[in-house]
Amino acid sequence: MSNKTLYKGFTMIDGTGKEPVSNAWFLVEGKKITKIGQGDDLPSAEDINIVDLDDKVVMPGLINSHVHITMEPVGDPFSLLMSESLAKTALRGAANLRKHLLSGTTYFRDLGAPGGVDLALRDAVKEGLIEGPEFLAASKVVTMTGGHGWPMGREADGVDETRKAAREQLKEGADLIKIMATGGVMTQGVEPGSPQLSKEEMESAIIEAHKAGKKTASHAQGTEGIKNAILAGIDSIEHGIFLDDEVIQLMVEKGVYLVPTLVAPYFIVENGVEAGIPKDAVDKSEMVMGSHMESFRKAYEAGVKIAMGTDAGTPFNLHDGAPYELKLMVDCGMTPMESLVSSTKTSAELLGIDEEYGTLEEGKFADFLVLDESPLDNLDTLFNINSVYKLGQLVK
Ligand SMILES: [Zn+2]
Known about the structure:
The longest helix is centred in the last third of the chain and has 24 residues. The protein is built from eleven helices and 17 strands. Strands 1, 2, 3, 4, 5, 15, 16 and 17 form an eight-stranded mixed beta sheet that branches. A four-stranded parallel beta sheet has the order 11-12-13-14. With about 400 residues, the chain is an alpha/beta fold. Helix 5 links the parallel strand 11 and strand 12.
C-alpha cells in the first residue's frame, strides 16, 4: 500500500488563527503533510489513497503544556504515587498516555515525575513500544528542601545545589527543567502565595538548562515568586495565580509564557473534601480560584503569550479532559479561536517544537483531529472527537 494519502472535502482550521478554509485538502506522505490546497484541484497519481472527509472539520491535535502523566487524578494523587512501586507508576503512565491520545492530545509536556518514569515512558513511545502522544519530560522537579512537590522532586538549597540539580536532570535525559518558585496547593503545610527558591537559586538552574538548549518552566503562584522566576530568566510561568500589573508587564517585555491550568483548582473546588481531596488543598484552592481567573483575564488582555496546559493528574483533573481548560479560557475572555491557537500553535512554540508540530502546514507532522462540527461553534465537540491521527496514522 502507498504511503500517500489524500484527505479532502473538509473545513480546515489550521491552528494559526486564520479563518477556517472550506473544501480543503491535504496530502500526507508518511508522517508529514506535504501539500495543502482547496477545492477540486487535487493532486493526482495512481498510488494515492483517498479519504473523503465531507462535512467534517479538521484541526491540529491538541498540545497540552502541563501534564503529570504518572499521577492518577484521584482525591489524593500524591499519597497514591508515593505508596506504589515505580513499576506500577510506569504502567499507570502508559494507561494515561492512551487517554491523552484518544481524546485528541497528540503532544504534551510532562512537568514532574518520580524515579525517571516519565523519561522511560517518553522513550518507550518514541521506540513504538507503547502507544501515546510524543512528549517532553522534566523528570524530577527542582525544589527547596521541604518545598512544593518535594516528595517527587530533587531538593536543592543554594545556587551550587540548584545548578547541580539541573545538571542531574539533564544528565538523565530531561527535555526541560521544572523549578518551584513558590508554594502550591497540593503540598501540605506549603502556602501557594509564598516564595520558595530564591531568584539566584533559580537563575543557576536556568543557566544550565539554557546552556544545554533546553527550556525552563516554573511552578509559580504568588506574586513575589513569579517575579523572581521571571527575573531569573524563566521561559514559562505555570499557574500564575497572583499576577500584578508589574509582573504582567515583565512577562510581555521578556516574552515569558503563561500556562494557566485554570482547571486544576477548579476541579478541586468542584469535588471537595467529600471526594477524598485533603482539606488543606480544598481550602487553598477555594482561596485562590477567583484571583487565578482574574490574573488570567488581565494577562490575556495585556497580550501575554498563553499556552494551554491542564495540570492533568491533580485531583479529578482527568487525562482526557483538556477541553475543559479551553472552555474555562473562553469563559475568562478568550474567543474560541484563540483557545484553539493557544492549544496548538502557541503550545508548540512554548515547547520549542513549532517547526514540525502545532499547525497544519506543509512540511509539518500529520497530527490532526477530525470533528463532526466546528469547535468554533461548539467547543464541546472536542469531547467527542470523530477520529485522531498521529504522525499520519489513524489511532482513533
Ligand atoms: Zn503541575
